[in-house]
Amino acid sequence: MGAHPHGADAARVKVELAEVFARHGAAYQATHRLVPVQYRAMRAIEACRTAALGGHVERCDACGRLRYHHHSCRNRHCPKCQTLAKERWLAARRAELLPVPYFHLVFTLPHELNALAQGNPRALYALLFESVSATLIAFGANPRWLGGAIAATLVLHTWGQNLGQHLHLHVLIAAGALAPDGHWITSRRGFLFPVKALSPVFRGKFLSGLKQLFSAGTLNLAASSAPLADATAQRRLFNTLYEKPWVVYAKRPFSGPAQVLDYLGRYTHRVAISNHRLVSCNDTEVRFRYKDYAHGNRRKVMTLTPAEFIRRFLLHVLPSGFMRIRHYGILANRAKGEKLAAARTALDHPSVAQPQQPESVEAFWLRVAQLDVHQCPHCHLGRMLVIGPISAPNARAPPLPPS
After folding, report:
1. How far is residue 69's CA from residue 88's CA, in Å, rounded to a whole number?
2. How many CB atoms sit inside 10 A of residue 398's CB?
3. Gap between the Cα atoms of 45 and 22, Å rounded
4. Cβ atoms 301, 4 nearer than 8 A
5. pLDDT, tens digit, for every residue of 354-399?
6. How far is CA 217 from CA 211, 213, 220, 221, 309, in A?
């Protein structure tokens, strides 16, 4: 395994994540224990847009040419299935944006917690959301900073550019808050909250919650590679975590809704690695591009064994049903309609029309790529009409791996 500076890859054959799983997935599964959600993700990505999932046949009504369409897997970890989902999600968010600047914050967990998170992803990720949201809500409610209810969206990322474990939350938060009496409080500074003040509060809330998880005995310590079963090891871990600074990073505020939506599109539906970053895959190695942030954001190519590449990717498969995008303050679902309307009234800004029915695939491609998916790609005159289905060879879901 290793990395070297990125150079031009002449005549590079297009590589996809599905190919890595097709060539090396079975061997990996034979030597590693996978949880069901990891197994399903591998199977889905490998089968995505292939005959394994079925589809339909189309024929041009002018020239008679045939076209075969295979179904998408729609797995949220598949790099080929996120574009339309992202666009539909963004359309729903347009109605929730307020006419104020927005800040981008990043809260990062120390790497000393990586091993514990590997064995307890649902508990640790949930605690990360709880700690960050409670910190932001407390700062927003404090009259020293704002004195009202914030509007924040939190997005979980678990990876770094090299596919290593890097647990952090991206936060998009409005520069202001809704006061209890209904008026809008505008941030009075060039920043929203001081990161040096956020960091110790975030650390304190997270470690307090982690102590409760240890005390309740709800953590699966046997599944963690960290030796934390005895009290001495746990005290050592907490001492280390209390002593080191926790990273909270604040970027410059966005200037308007267009920038906010561009940000959301880049972060909300991103998967651990996209197909365009893959360089090559053979019997002994997988190569992919990454940015080396520790050395001036240099673009490099990393080489991993297939087993190590798959292991790293599977670290970032989320627990079944876990929500990686969450909203807080006046965006929280239980009172969002009423509080958003109150915020818009306070800002003297009319409500944005609520999103209509989800955009169709045809309308999406016509809008973003000026591509009419029904036009025949051969004669460019006729229309492609569905003439029949392509049956999937396995109509039922594949069996889970043996436990």
Report:
1. 22
2. 12
3. 9
4. yes
5. 555 666 666 665 565 667 888 999 999 999 999 999 888 764 444 4
6. 10, 6, 8, 9, 33
